[in-house]
Every structure is written in C-alpha cells, then in structure tokens.
Design goal:
Blueprint: H1 10-35, H2 43-50, H3 59-66, H4 70-83, E1 86-90, E2 98-102, H5 104-128, H6 130-140
Antiparallel strand pairs: 1-2
C-alpha cells in the first residue's frame, strides 16, 4: 500500500451489505417464480417489471426512474413482450406515444412475486421482529444530502 489510511466505515459496510441482500432477494424471487412456471425471467427484467406501475407506463419515465437509456427501456420491453408479460399500445390521448402495460400473464407473475415477498416478510419478521425491520427501513431512507 502507498501508506494511505483505509478507515473502517459503517456506511461502506452497510452499502455493501444492502447490495448483497438485494442480489440474494432477487435470486430467491427468481427461483420462486421459476417454480411457478415463469421460465426465462432474468434479474434485470424482474427489476424492470418491479418498477412498473399497474396502469399505463411510458418509456421516458421508466428511463428516468431506472436511470437507463430509452433504448435500454425499449430493448427490455421488446424482450418482455416476446415473453408475453408486457404489451405496448398507442396512447389514445398522446397519439405519438406508446404506453407499456402488463398482460394478464404479466399481472399473474407480479401477483405471484408479491405473494412471495409476503412470505419473505414473514421470514424476516420471525428472524428480526417488526420493530427492527421498521427501524432498518428508516435507516435505508436516510439521505446524507438533506440537512
């Protein structure tokens, strides 16, 4: 080493732990959905689907929310349309834009995902207790940019 101090950091450890937790939860959920018959679903697609509203969605808004390009949104939407989980249709009010919506099968998948998350809630509550989970949610909502 060049002699620079590398201090221990709770914030760094928490950042790393939350990323590992997220990856474990996505892997767990993908496994559950595979058992439900949703074959071929990938982690990035699951994350994408989880960011959609139940109603109409627009590519530009999704790109901003997910911090990805519109081209990446369109590519993912095409993949999910091919899989039968999403559909696009013209917006009746804004004729030049297309809206992105869940298909019935996509809604069924998201319903199953929510049911699995409920199962996970039960496991977490049993392991840590409701109060600690609420405390952790509050901690993860911390924004160091706000005074």
């Amino acid at each position: 080493m060049a002699g620079f101090d590398l201090l221990e950091s709770h914030a760094l450890a928490l950042t790393q732990a939350t990323e590992i937790f997220r990856e474990r939860m996505i892997t767990w959920l993908l496994s559950k959905l595979l058992n439900d018959g949703f074959e071929g679903l990938k982690a990035n697609q699951l994350t994408f689907l989880g960011s959609l509203d139940c109603g109409a969605n627009f590519a530009a808004e999704l790109a901003r929310t997910l911090r990805i390009s519109r081209q990446a949104v369109h590519k993912t939407v095409r993949e999910l349309e091919t899989a039968g989980w999403l559909a696009t249709r013209p917006d009746e009010k804004l004729g030049n834009q297309r809206i992105i919506v869940f298909t019935e099968e996509g809604e069924r998948m998201m319903s199953r995902a929510r049911a699995h998350f409920s199962e996970l809630d039960t496991l977490l509550q049993r392991e840590f207790g409701e109060d600690k989970l609420l405390e952790l949610q509050g901690l993860l909502g911390f924004d160091p940019n706000k005074p």
